[in-house]
Design a protein that fits this description.
The complex is a heterodimer of chains A (about 180) and B (about 200). Chain A has about 180 residues and is α/β, with parallel strands linked by helices. Helix content of chain A is about 35%, strand content about 20%. Chain A has a 6-stranded parallel β-sheet with strand order 2-1-3-4-6-5, with helices on both faces. In chain A, helix 7 links the parallel strand 5 and strand 6. By secondary structure, chain B is an alpha/beta fold. Helices cover about 35% and strands about 15% of the residues of chain B. Chain B is built from 8 helices and 7 strands, in the order H-H-E-H-H-E-H-E-H-H-E-E-E-H-E. In chain B, the strands form 2 sheets. Chain B has a 5-stranded parallel β-sheet with strand order 2-1-3-4-7, with helices on both faces. In chain B, helix 1 runs parallel beside helix 4. Chain B is globular. Classes of the chains: A alpha/beta (about 180), B alpha/beta (about 200). At the A-B interface, helix 2 and helix 4 of A face helix 5 and helix 7 of B.
Chain lengths: ~180, ~200
C-alpha cells in the first residue's frame, strides 16, 4: 500500500476506538494534505480548532487526563514549535511531576513539509525530530520513513499500555512519491 | 463542601510548612498562602468530589479543601513537590509553569462535555497569568463552547516581585470587576513572600 494509503488506513483504525478524538486545524474541513487521510473518520470524532497551537496541545493533554485518546494534528513541525511548552513541560514531564499517577495517552501527528512540486520556503519545511528527541524523555518520537512503518506505529501508539505518548512524523513529499 | 476545614485550619497548615521550610527540612521551593482563607473556603462551597481542580505552584489550600489529608499533603511537600502537587485520586493537577494549567483545564472540561459528564473543572490562576495570551484564549474558548469550567483569579497584585498592573501599564485587570459567570475574581494580600517563608535558609 502507498504512503498515503497507510496513513489513511491508520486513521481509520484509530477511529474504531471509542475513546479517540481528532483535533487540529483542517481536520473537519479541507485545508491540508492530512485532511484527506481523515475523510472516512466519523464527523463526530473530528474537532476543528482555531489556530492556537499551545492551547491545542494543552487541550489535548486535558482530554487525555480525563480518559480520552486524542489524536492531535499539527500539519507541520514549524507549527508544532508553538506548542513546545505544553509538549515538553507538561506531557513529557507528567510521569515525573505526578509520580506516575497521571498517564495521559496522546497521539500527536506532524509532518515535514513537502518541497515538490511547490517549495513553501524555510518556515514550512522544518524537521526538528532530533532536537525533540533530546528534549523529550517520556514521549516516543517516531519518523515514518516507509509505508510499511506507518500502520504498526499508529497501532502501537493506540494500544500501548505503558502510559507513554507518541509523536509521529510524516513526510509531505512521500504522499506522492512512495 | 467536601471538608469542614476552617480558616484557622488552613493558616495553621501553612504555618507548619513555613516552620518546616525555615528549619531547612524542605529542599525545594514552597509557595504559601495567607489572607485569602475566607475567599478560598467560599470558592470551595460549590466544588464537588468528582470535580477537577487545577492549580499553579501555590496550591496547599486547594489540596486540603479538595480532601487531601494534611499528613499526605505534608509528606509530598517535604519530598519537594510543593510546586507541582498532583493527586489523581482527588482529581488535582498542579503545574509550576505560569499559565500551563489553563489549556489542560480547558481540555478536561471539553472531555466532560463531549462525554456528557456532570462534573466540572475549577482552574486557579494568579493576576499576572490572567493577563496572558493563553488565559484569554482558554477563557474565550471555554465561554464560546459553554464548557463546564470556572476560572478563579487570585489577585495579590504581584508576579514574583513584579507589580502586574504597573508592568502591563494599566490600573485595572481584564477580569477585575467583570460579571462573567465563568470567572471568579478576588483580591487579597499575601503576607508570605513569593517563595519560601520569609527567612533566609542556608541549606
Amino acid at each position: 500500500m502507498s504512503y498515503f494509503g497507510e496513513l489513511k488506513r491508520s486513521m481509520d483504525y484509530l477511529a474504531t476506538h471509542p475513546r479517540t478524538i481528532y483535533l487540529g486545524q483542517a481536520v473537519a474541513v479541507p485545508g491540508t494534505a492530512m485532511t484527506t487521510t481523515l475523510k472516512d473518520v466519523p464527523q463526530t470524532k473530528l474537532r476543528e480548532m482555531p489556530i492556537t497551537e499551545e492551547m491545542q496541545m494543552g487541550i489535548t493533554i486535558g482530554l487525555a487526563l480525563d480518559g480520552m485518546i486524542p489524536v492531535s494534528i499539527f500539519p507541520r513541525w514549524n507549527f508544532l514549535l508553538l506548542a513546545v511548552n505544553q509538549l515538553v513541560n507538561h506531557l513529557d514531564r507528567m510521569p515525573q511531576i505526578s509520580k506516575g499517577g497521571y498517564k495521559p495517552v496522546v497521539i500527536i501527528r506532524t509532518g515535514i513539509g513537502s518541497e515538490r512540486p511547490l517549495h513553501p520556503q524555510q518556515q514550512h519545511i522544518g524537521d526538528f525530530t532530533e532536537a525533540f528527541r533530546l528534549m523529550c524523555h517520556h514521549v516516543d518520537i517516531i519518523r515514518l520513513e516507509e509505508p510499511e512503518d506507518i500502520f504498526p506505529a499508529y497501532r502501537k501508539a493506540l494500544d500501548r499500555e505503558d502510559g507513554r505518548s507518541t509523536l509521529l512524523i510524516e513526510y509531505g513529499d512521500y504522499y506522492n512519491e512512495k | 463542601m467536601i471538608t469542614k476545614l476552617t480558616k484557622d485550619d488552613l493558616v495553621k497548615f501553612e504555618e507548619k510548612v513555613a516552620e518546616t521550610f525555615n528549619a531547612g527540612k524542605i529542599k525545594a521551593p514552597v509557595h504559601l498562602y495567607y489572607g485569602n482563607e475566607e475567599e478560598m473556603i467560599d470558592v470551595f462551597q460549590v466544588i464537588e468530589r468528582e470535580d477537577w481542580v487545577l492549580c499553579s505552584w501555590r496550591s496547599h489550600y486547594q489540596c486540603l479543601l479538595k480532601g487531601v489529608p494534611d499528613e499526605e499533603l505534608m509528606k509530598e511537600i517535604i519530598e519537594g513537590r510543593s510546586i507541582s502537587l498532583c493527586f489523581p485520586e482527588y482529581k488535582i493537577f498542579s503545574s509550576g509553569i505560569a499559565g500551563g494549567i489553563l489549556p489542560i483545564a480547558t481540555g478536561i472540561a471539553l472531555s466532560i462535555k463531549h462525554n456528557g459528564g456532570e462534573n466540572r473543572v475549577h482552574c486557579f490562576i494568579g493576576d499576572m497569568t490572567s493577563e496572558t495570551g493563553i488565559a484569554h484564549e482558554c477563557i474565550k474558548y471555554s465561554h464560546n463552547h459553554d464548557l463546564p469550567i470556572r476560572f478563579i483569579i487570585e489577585d495579590d497584585g504581584k508576579s514574583v516581585c513584579t507589580d502586574t498592573r504597573e508592568a502591563w501599564g494599566t490600573d485595572q485587570l481584564t477580569y477585575e470587576n467583570n460579571d462573567d459567570p465563568m470567572v471568579v475574581y478576588y483580591r487579597y494580600q499575601n503576607s508570605y513572600p513569593h517563595a519560601g517563608a520569609g527567612v533566609r535558609v542556608q541549606f
